[in-house]
Amino acid sequence: MVRRTVLAALLVAAALAGGARAQLKEGFYDYSCPQAEKIVKDYVKAHIPHAPDVASTLLRTHFHDCFVRGCDASVLLNATGGSEAEKDAAPNLTLRGFGFIDRIKALLEKECPGVVSCADIVALAARDSVGVIGGPFWSVPTGRRDGTVSIKQEALDQIPAPTMNFTQLLQSFQNKSLNLADLVWLSGAHTIGISQCNSFSERLYNFTGRGGPDDADPSLDPLYAAKLRLKCKTLTDNTTIVEMDPGSFRTFDLSYYRGVLKRRGLFQSDAALITDAASKADILSVINAPPEVFFQVFAGSMVKMGAIEVKTGSEGEIRKHCALVNKH
């Protein structure tokens, strides 16, 4: 039954993403830059084992990029002309993979100048880095073009916040043509990575606005909350980091969902997943199935996400430097 459900989900994912994916294709660079995907993969395989935490930030970079103006690498652009860019918005201040992407871009520019987009590098590097740490593999159709606009406020408005309830989360995903299942499976990316205390400290000290350690989110397991307060000692701590999936934050597995069911999700948005019956049922189905089932459904949702509002053909440009729009 679980396997039939997974197959149906993957078929629906392919159909819904079909319009955008028709403009992308696997092997897009086979003739224009035959070594492109190998260059990305080899660099990731050489460096992620020495810095496994970068896998989570590359995955977040891809997610945050696609939710604002589509998957067009606008999150990589520096601010210009006194206007702040997406990377200056609070959700993106902890992204640490820009230099990693820049180094891959430099290798590709040496191999095939002006051919491979930064948007495709982000998508490929996210996929390959997850694979290196033992996570799933998914197809990445290529041919994305790079955007030329990046606006801080759009990132603040469109990237799902860790404080959102289920209704807000689902609406945020539906705005990008993603559905409830995509919300559940893509949230599973929280199985890897870390977060700063200020992303969830209101759950520990100021949930209702009254303030103090007695004003904790009642949906958070009290023992887990007490452990978090030992690390995050104040409401305003913005330097201490905490594992999003304690004890398993470098392993792509099902322990995140098990923690959520035990009321040990780090963010309000994690806790929100079990406030909806259909969402909770999806989580229960996947944790009672073989691990490869989660890998399959996560992969299907990543393919859909990677096709959000892509620029292809003559749209956008192929940036020479990922942080800068080309000079014309």
UniProtKB/TrEMBL annotation:
It comes from the Eukaryota. The keyword Metal-binding applies. Residues 1-22 form the signal peptide. The record marks 60 as: Transition state stabilizer. The active site is at residue 64. Ca(2+) 1 binds at residues 65, 68, 70, 72, 74, 86. Pfam families: peroxidase (PF00141). Its EC number is 1.11.1.7. Disulfide bonds join 33-112, 66-71, 118-322, 197-232. Binds 2 calcium ions per subunit. Binds 1 heme b (iron(II)-protoporphyrin IX) group per subunit. InterPro entries: Haem_peroxidase, Haem_peroxidase_sf, Peroxidase_pln, Peroxidases_heam-ligand_BS, Secretory_peroxidase. Its cofactor is Ca(2+); heme b. Keywords: Calcium, Disulfide bond, Glycoprotein, Heme, Hydrogen peroxide, Iron, Metal-binding, Oxidoreductase, Peroxidase, Secreted, Signal. GO terms for molecular function: heme binding; lactoperoxidase activity; metal ion binding. Gene3D superfamilies: 1.10.520.10, Peroxidase, domain 2. Substrate binds at residue 160. Heme b binds at residue 190. Belongs to the peroxidase family. Ascorbate peroxidase subfamily. This is Peroxidase. It comes from Zea mays (Maize). The gene is PER3_0.
